[in-house]
Amino acid sequence: MRNYLFLLLLTMIIASCGNNKKDEKSETQAPDSVALQYFYGWEATLNDSTGKLEMKKKEGAGPDSISVGAIISYLNRTNTHVQLELVKVSNDTVYVKIPDATYLTQQMGSTGPVLYFSEVVYNLTELAGIKYVNLDFEEGDHASPATLNRDSFNDQ
Predict the structure, then answer these.
(1) CA 34 to CA 73: how far, in whole Å?
(2) In sequence order, which residues have a C-beta less than 8 Å from that of residue 11 and are 6 or more positions away?
(3) What are the CA-CA distances from residue 58 to residues 2, 34, 39, 107 (Å)?
(4) Closest by Cα among 32, 113, 111 to 74
């Protein structure tokens, strides 16, 4: 009986000392990978009373790190009809393109692109040193390419 208890205790100790590969993987993930955790992202809304654009920080599932790639992935998850692709980061500007901007420029009206662009700009300019976002896409009826910053949305 004593041997069985010793064997059971030994088995439990060995089992509890196993390598936790799940933790190891999360530490070695690339910085642009996306895992859900709480994040304060920016959301654009229109004030019902004034009709003006308001930017609000919202808590929700977001990127696991504050990097350009993680924020673009987050924006692409929250806006499935408009997908951003990173071109480059140069000095204080993030350059992105929208390969298929038909929904953005033709189907969102004139207010939709303003709301979308403000969310993109506010979220990407949360990064240290980033002040501008250059958006490249085929111009349409309701939106055209531009380089924007947070001040671009004053008095909207």
Answers:
(1) 7
(2) none
(3) 59, 18, 8, 26
(4) 32
Least Cα distance to 137 among 89, 109, 101, 108 occurs for: 101
Tell me which residue of 144, 68, 133 sits closest to 105, measured CA to CA.
144
Q: What's the whole-model pTM score?
A: 0.67
Q: What is the rounded distance in angstroms from the CA atom of residue 109 to the CA atom of residue 112?
A: 6
Beta carbons within 10 angstroms of residue 34's beta carbon: 20
Contacts of 103 (CB under 8 A, 6+ apart): 81, 82
Cβ neighbours of 21 (radius 10 Å)? 8
Angle at which helices 111-124 and 68-78 pack, to 10 degrees?
150
**Structure tokens given for 24:** 């190891």
Output the six-digit token pair for 6: 């010793």
Distance between CA atoms of 148 and 142, rounded to whole angstroms?
16
78-126 pLDDT tens trace = 899 999 999 999 999 999 999 999 999 999 988 899 999 999 999 999 8
Dihedral sign for Cα 150, 40, 86, 145, please.
negative
